[in-house]
Amino acid sequence: MVKELIIHIGLYKTGTTSIQEFLYKNKDKLFNEFGIYYPNTYGLKSHNLCAHILRNYYPEHLVNIVNKTGLTKDILLKQFRDELDNVKPNTVLISSEVLSGFTNLINEIVQVVSPKILKLIVYLRRQDKKLESLYSEQVRNLDSKAFPLSPFHIGSFSLDYHKYLKKLEHILGLNKVELKLIPRIYSRDFDRSWDAVKDFCKVLDIPELIILESDIKENISLSPVSIIALKRIKEKYSLPMNLFSKIVSYLYKYDNEKPSKLRSLFSLEERKKENIKFL
Fold this sequence. Notes:
Rossmann fold, 5-stranded parallel sheet, 13 helices, 5 strands, globular
């Protein structure tokens, strides 16, 4: 029987990609040395594909993988049960930011694993910084041609973290397992020495210096100046993917060589107005 199920659900734009890269690269060491099992991801570094299959929705970039593997919800759950029966781990670790918006899927995973303890790791980022990062990602995505007018119009999702955590606690508390909700603060916006992977190691209570093999930095945002420049380029020109990628790469290089003096797409008053909603 699995003693502990650890589920990392992001949230989005909180170093999730870096953490998943780390977990995937070190999955054998995690299990062999620390007894933490990172289940089959079907070729990805996260369990996002599994989460999408559970909700019967496949984003365009995952359709080919789904068709190739022939995975369905029933097949996935059966293979997951068989995997756990074969490995017999004490601790199972799953990472998918997709799960952050679908609490019912977390309950389904809990029912399959039947752990004694459920630990849910949730990283929270200051609201204005999260909006800005999400906006940056949309501008960097060539397919996202109709991006919002400003970071304030990025989309509809909950930025009321207190309400969100209370909802998680209530719904997941209905399971007959001991629930440990572990909220963490994404601090890199204010402390450049802060590292999501190292912080995650602290949560897992594993010695980071033993397990870290490289300094993993994934999915880093462009500077505000470069985002503004890229937005204007996309508004004026229709670019092929190879040229668009070269422009983005150049902007990353430019940011590294000439750090932007502009620190935010928001004015100070805009940041205050956005964040004060949640005090």
